[in-house]
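User: Okay, second chain of the day. Same drill as before: sequence in, structure tokens out.
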Amino acid sequence: MRTVIEVATFVGPLSFVWDDDALGVDAEGRVIKGAVVRSEFVRAARLAGAGARVVDADSASGDPGMVVRAVRAWSDGSAPNALDVVPVLQAGGEFRQKCWQALRSVKAGEVLSYAELAQLAGNPLASRAAGSAMANNTVAPFVPCHRVVRADGVIGNYSATGGSETKVRILEHEGNQIA
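Assistant: Same drill. Structure tokens below.
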């Protein structure tokens, strides 16, 4: 069953789709069942498709309740890396999967360049492909693509609602000094 939940954050509502039936492999190679399969800084109604049920954040329990607690802890600053443990699954080729997995090891308060991300993902010459992986990330901020900046330090684009303004707010919230 798919559940859609909206959680208030410092940048507005963050809605996520939890799928109890999602089946995949996490970064450590363990099989997982159940994961966030989509998230956006929008109202829950925008993500609720056919067959999904919308649940109030305060009444969420089980795994979706764990995700709500993680989002709140990240948002209020009490656990800046709380989103790192939330299981996520998204479709993408091998290099994109490696980029997304590598990025989850980058902690709040840190940033890296697209070239550095490509290196972490095993192909130091693939900075454009790393950028493409970030542009196609469907589970931000759980996969924290906001932590990737251009090599010259310029923030760059952010495909989430609010664009680069949202990216700057998140980076500042996580302790980065933005010029």
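The longest strand covers residues 12-25.

User: Thanks, on to the next one.
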